[in-house]
Amino acid sequence: MSRPFAVLLAAVYFGISATPVFAQVQTTEVLTDAQLAEATTRPVRIRETTPEFAGVFNQVGEFAKKYGPENVLLVVDLDNTLLAMNQDLGSDQWFSWQEALQNSNPTHPELVAADFGGLLEIQGILFALSRMHPPEPGLPDVVEDLVTRKITTVVLTSRGKEFRDAAERELKRNKYNISPSTLEIHEKRGVFSPYSAEHPGKHGLSAEIIDDLGSPRRVTYSEGIYMTAGQHKGYMLKTLLSRSTKASADKPLAHFKAIVFVDDHQKHVDRMHEAFAGDFIDLATFRYSREDENVEKFNKSTKRHVIREWELLNGFIKTVLVK
């Protein structure tokens, strides 16, 4: 039995919570006067993959020097970016594996739940019982440094609203504190729909985009943490910015002139560029690869260890806690 899982099992019993930077390829070329004029007026677009947050820190610093720190927005993913599970069971890669199994073979014997709703319930149990850690030593200090410099910071996660308590607990326990420099929006604390088909354009999205996205799932934003329930992160960010107390009809992105986005999933990076493709704002995205080795190791494994761990935990819950 792995030590992290033993800690998780003990949490149930005792009732406690338990590669180099790949920069863009650059070439030297002589620009014409027309090309030079265009280059000085079009927004910056940067895509990088990195296992170290230092590149993110430096890019935020460059934008802050260019526009002032108050005009720079840092948006950071939660799972496998700010925090990673102490064990495979309940991790981001474990959830992805279970979700893929449900989609490909709904009767697969290794599934922990019969449907997606059941999977979310079990994920909630594992979030409640598990502990997490920063993927990179000193990462909370790096984020705190940026917050101290008055860089507005948003934690943008695909988790749903029901997992907020666990997220806030682990962020606090790992000494992340972004509250001094969060985005202020008009909505009160609570749950709301990110957009409405009846009022296209009100929250930063066109009728065409809303039609493609379909009916929204309710989200929640508080203490700088935006829980988007698995929806398009790029468009979810735009709807959040449109709710900023500094946004207006002619400034749907509030006062920001640059965004730095960090996420371990390539699809979310791609969606961020998709969402802001037509906007005049600098955008730098970082595909954070720190946990790639652990994810790959899990994906190539037989999964027997997590199957056995869930059997033990589920059996304990049913025989001891459920009466």
Write the layout of secondary structure elements.
Elements: H1 3-14, H2 33-41, E1 45-50, H3 54-67, E2 72-76, E3 84-85, H4 92-104, H5 116-129, E4 132-133, H6 139-148, E5 152-157, H7 164-173, E6 191-192, H8 207-213, E7 219-222, E8 225-227, H9 233-242, E9 258-263, H10 266-275, E10 282-288, H11 292-300, H12 304-321
Parallel strand pairs: 1-10, 2-5, 2-9, 5-8, 9-10
Antiparallel strand pairs: 3-4, 6-7, 7-8
Helix pairs in contact: 1-12, 9-10
- Rounded to the nearest angstrom, the radius of gyration is 21 Å
Summarize the biggest pleated sheet.
8 strands, mixed
Low-confidence parts lasting 5 or more residues at pLDDT below 50?
A: 16-28
Task: Please count the beta strands (DSSP E, at least 2 residues each).
Answer: 10
Q: What proportion of the residues form beta strands (DSSP E)? A: 5-15%
- The average pLDDT value, as a whole number, equals 90
CATH-derived topology of the largest domain: Rossmann fold
Second rung of CATH, namely the architecture of the largest domain: 3-Layer(aba) Sandwich
How would you characterize this protein structure?
This protein has 323 residues and is an alpha/beta fold. It has two domains: 46-85 and 134-289, Rossmann fold (3-Layer(aba) Sandwich); 87-130, no CATH class. Helix 1 packs parallel to helix 12 and helix 9 packs across helix 10 (266-275). The protein contains twelve helices and ten strands. Residues 16-28 have low confidence and may be disordered. It has helices at 3-14, 33-41, 54-67, 92-104, 116-129, 139-148, 164-173, 207-213, 233-242, 266-275, 292-300, 304-321, and strands spanning 45-50, 72-76, 84-85, 132-133, 152-157, 191-192, 219-222, 225-227, 258-263, 282-288. Strands 1-10-9-2-5-8-7-6 form an eight-stranded mixed β-sheet, with helices on both faces. A two-stranded antiparallel ribbon has the order 3-4.
